[in-house]
Write a structure and sequence with these properties.
The protein is mostly helical. It is built from seven helices and no strands. The radius of gyration is 18 Å and the shape is globular.
Amino acid sequence: MMTPMNTDETYRILSLRLKNFLRNNWNFQEEDVEEIIQDVLVILHRKNQESRFRWNISWLYKVAYNKAIDKIKYRKTVESLDGEYEIASPCLNPEEELMNSLEREWVKGFLNSLDRTNRNISYLYYYENFRCRSIGEILQIPAGTVKYRLSNIRKMLKAAYEKYEKN
């Protein structure tokens, strides 16, 4: 659990993490992302005014997730992931960098092929390092379901990668 906060720096850091979460899981326009983040930070600020309120990061992601779902429901459209997640590797030679770039693009394509729930689970587990229980709280599904889906995602990834390597 985290204690109530009041620093601009903490809000800035949380804002950046939530932006990454929203950009990597939904294809929102920048103003939609900003609007969702502002809504989340307003809720957090109001909750911090309550003397007994204690929040944790999974609660914050759950609020952002629910706000994103509300935004989608409001639009009545479901869009796919189109964002990029770049991992810098400055010490590789150009050939290794090209191979890693191609593999990253392949993994990105694989993640794009997953349904939204599996994509969210993958992002939160591998990029944000959340535990299964926290992911379950955010997505409002049992932790066992999260573990089961991660297992299936790994199996699908392995099978797809073996097929990719053969070609």
